[in-house]
Amino acid sequence: MIEVTTASLGAHPFLYGMPDDLLARLAGTATIARFPARHRIFEEGRIATRFWLIRSGYVALDLEVPGEGRVVVETIRMGDALGWSWLFPPYQWAFGAVAVDPVEAFEFDGPAVRALCREDPRLGYELTWRLAEAIASRLKATRMRLLAQYRTVDAVAGE
Predict the structure, then answer these.
(1) 18-54: per-residue pLDDT in tens?
(2) Where are the domains of the chain?
(3) How is 114-146 classified by DSSP, letter by letter?
(4) Angle between the 121-157 and 20-27 helix axes, to the nearest 10 degrees?
(5) Superfamily assignment of 6-157 in CATH?
(6) CB within 8 Å of 34: residues ≥ 6 apart
(7) Predicted TM-score of the model (pTM)
(8) Residue 60: which H helix or E strand, with range?
């Protein structure tokens, strides 16, 4: 097993600039995970106990749509965080995730990280702030995709 170090965590864009003492605490909850292409990482509706920081590869987030099957709603890539359902009750995945190509990531034990955040509010603040930025960025991207889709629908309807 490869040891996750403070330096390797601190080099990841999601954690860049986090104080070393907080990175050291996180390192104790992390491992390196590797997923082959087409591997389902998690399933919508199941219990969320992990999260990942992508080091290489792409992950598709999907959603089960009645009558259509799984629909990809977002693609996560190197530098991104995958999964935040581990942080918020009821700790269930809101989406599914599948590796598009081989993926390597830091994998974190969600309940252990929640416990560390309760013990050290600085760590809780740092992680929550970074996750909030990621969530806001994804919501903005989703909004732009929806606007583009509605423009296309309006253009077709106007023909």
Answers:
(1) 999 999 999 999 999 999 999 999 999 999 999 999 9
(2) 6-157
(3) HHHHHH-HHHHHHHHHHHHHHHHHHHHHHHHHH
(4) 80
(5) Jelly Rolls (2.60.120.10)
(6) 102, 103, 104, 105
(7) 0.87
(8) strand 58-65
